[in-house]
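Retro notes
What went well: the complex prediction finally ran end to end.
Inputs used:
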Amino acid sequence: MKKHQPTILVVNDDGITAPGIKVLIETMQQLGRVVVVAPDSPQSGMGHAITIGKPLRLDTVNLYNGVEMYKCSGTPVDCVKLAVNRVFKGAKPDLCVSGINHGLNHSINVLYSGTMSAAVEGAIEGIPAIGFSLDDYTEEANFAPSAAYIKQIAQQVLKNGLPQGTLLNVNFPKTTDIKGIKICRQARGKWAEEFNERMDPYKRPYYWLTGEFQLNDQGEDTDVWALEHHYVSVVPVQFDMTAHHAISLLNGWKFESKI
Amino acid sequence: MKKHQPTILVVNDDGITAPGIKVLIETMQQLGRVVVVAPDSPQSGMGHAITIGKPLRLDTVNLYNGVEMYKCSGTPVDCVKLAVNRVFKGAKPDLCVSGINHGLNHSINVLYSGTMSAAVEGAIEGIPAIGFSLDDYTEEANFAPSAAYIKQIAQQVLKNGLPQGTLLNVNFPKTTDIKGIKICRQARGKWAEEFNERMDPYKRPYYWLTGEFQLNDQGEDTDVWALEHHYVSVVPVQFDMTAHHAISLLNGWKFESKI
């Protein structure tokens, strides 16, 4: 009997020519049939943005021998939507992987990250989904040490699936001596912005967004802790954003029942 | 003793000239000092996008008598970041309200919505935050019936605060006969995309994102149910996206501890 060959959708937010997606494609080719739909330009920080005010382009491209690839003019989430609707035409892939992102997406960054939002969109579509990111922002970032872990994690997800409404956020530390994999929760923290103010040649100010991550969490069960201790962090993520624990408190508030 | 006058940051995603933000400004003026920082152009569907590849503009504008207003060239989340850092300069406002959005943001739309993402960013900054949206997509949408409810809800939040890490997602039904307020959870559902394919004058295809909302939830405790039954839906939202219930399951997966 012929074994079922899984179909794997590969997306990212750094764009289709990024080195991180190349490593992800090569790793997924060991597990099944790969289809790539990725942005034609960098889309970092696009979060869960979709394109509604202008039309989208979706064109085939031939970068790596024999790999079915499409570049899209939209956001990472647009890529997943176009993949599901126009490339797979409703025949869902068995797995959606996003990345490998050039830079970390731990903690609160799950919200800002195009890489993670593409994976979230895959999960919303009912596809088991994983986002991968590496703690290295340099041009010569080495994505190779992550590959063996990516393969293991993807194999587990292909074998076991994921609980309904969840996906995985996987981050890799910057080290050649990875200690192993840790299942974590999202650390509490936020970016402290410091807008860099400059003057244009017409003496009008403009601002560059910069900032520093502030960790407000001493827990040893967080993704930030795991990464600092050279572990691969795996956070199960859900897209039900309801704060269920706050419902009873709000039910105690007194509103005029009808105005 | 003089009563403390709260400071209220007003943002939106439909842009600073939208009719919905005008109603929100007027309502908030009854409760405190209003400062508006809103996008200079429509930013619907921008989700939690931030601008990192290009600089931002932030300029004062005088639309409504005596109201401190700024227009920003970025996304709704950029507006909140610039407000906190450049307008308030660290002195946090007492409340952040976003909207009133021209169209619903129930259920999964909390992820795609610029209106809600601005409120989420306010909450990340530690500011009690509320997003408001109206089920009316027409040009002549009537935001006025929502105003009395907005005032009540904002007053409660100013009085009681909100549990740490949470904010409110408030949606208004399209009716002149609102039945009251219901505290809800986010309904399960998703958009079923139908990309509209067209040909440009050069015979190359392009795609418009369209779609229909698919409700996969029969619960009577959801925001969709409340709106369909002419209630104002109030969903407490959190930005910890960890699927805590999935952690123990994932801890049962067998990984090679070190590769």
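What we learned: Chain A has one domain: 7-186+220-251.
What to try next: split runs per interface for comparison.
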